[in-house]
Amino acid sequence: MKKFLAILLASLLLLSLVACGKEETEEKKKADEAVVNEESKFGYFLYNVNTDGDYEITGFDYTEVEKIDVEIPAEIGGRAVTGIGDEAFKALKNIKSVTIPTSVTYIGAHAFYDCDYVTEITLPDSILTVGTGAFEDCSGLEKVTLSKELKQLDAYSFKNCAKLGNVTLPEGLLTIAEGAFMGCTSITAVTVPTTVTSLGNAVFYGCTALAEITVKGEVAEIGTILLDGCADGLTVNTTEGSAFEKYAQEQGYLEVPEQDGNEEGEN
Q: What integer pLDDT is reported at residue 5 of this predicted model?
């Protein structure tokens, strides 16, 4: 009988602990949903919970005229900040530099669109994706250091960054989407690493100073008007027999080799 009572008490205690755990989980879920549905504020930063259950910076509430350096927090209240959301800093004319912590893994669409006074930005190696138009129309941007772990540059990532100089594209990058560097009129040379398998439409369209491009890998997907409007006499370096070599020949950037007159079948 004593053994039965002991088992019964243990079972009741276990059920009680499970119930408490469920209540705590439900409370945390409700708290997260509240943050998602209603932005919270930390200093000048607005934030909410992202799909991973971490924090995402969604805005910057700074209305003063003076220009400031912005340092994005790595965590808020003990929870990691892993993302910069869509349009978080869009068209802010009062920030002159941005420091991004290594906790951040993605930058959303138009996150820094039209931030004219940011001249240099470093993307830590934690960042895997840069969203559509993330730095588009940043007219003062001169230097960008990309994450070594970057996998994807979305469409128009750096479109019309007219002062942006040559950018080192990291080995491991897979996709450069449509118009990523369109209108970047200060880029003079670019090397596309071996890992890139997709170059979207008009990636370097209107890069009027671009005089040399090197494509190292076997790019499977190549968009249209990729190099239109680049410098006269553009030099193309690529692997013999590659799809990009064929593309460059078709577009007139590389000469088509003369056919051997002793081809098979001829006498």
A: 54
- Nearest in space to 114 (alpha carbons), one of 81, 84, 76, 156: 156
Q: Quick check: 128 and 150 in contact, CB under 8 A?
A: yes
CB 149 within 8 A of CB 170: yes
How far is it, in rounded angstroms, from Cα 181 to Cα 162? 10
pLDDT digits (tens, 9 = 90+) for 28-63: 554 455 445 568 999 999 999 999 999 999 999 998
What lies within 8 Å, CB to CB, of 207 at 6+ separation is 181, 182, 183, 184, 185, 187, 229, 230, 231
Given a cut of 80, whether residue 98 has pLDDT beyond it is yes
CA angle 100, 102, 103 (to 5 degrees): 100
How far apart are the C-alpha atoms of 48 and 27, rounded to whole Å?
Answer: 16
Question: And the tokens for 113?
Answer: 């669109």
Residue 103, classed as helix, strand or coil, is: coil
Q: Across-strand partners of 213?
A: 190, 236
Give me the amino acid identity at 2.
Answer: K
Structure tokens at 50: 């992202």
In 3D space, the residue among 103, 44, 96 whose CA is nearest the CA of residue 66 turns out to be 96
Pairing relation of β-strands 55-60 and 143-145? unpaired
DSSP letters spanning 70-93: EE--SEETTEEEEEE-TTTTTT-S
Q: Which two tokens stand for residue 135?
A: 């730095």
C-alpha distance from residue 75 to each of 88, 104, 106 (Å): 17, 10, 15
pLDDT value, residue 167: 96
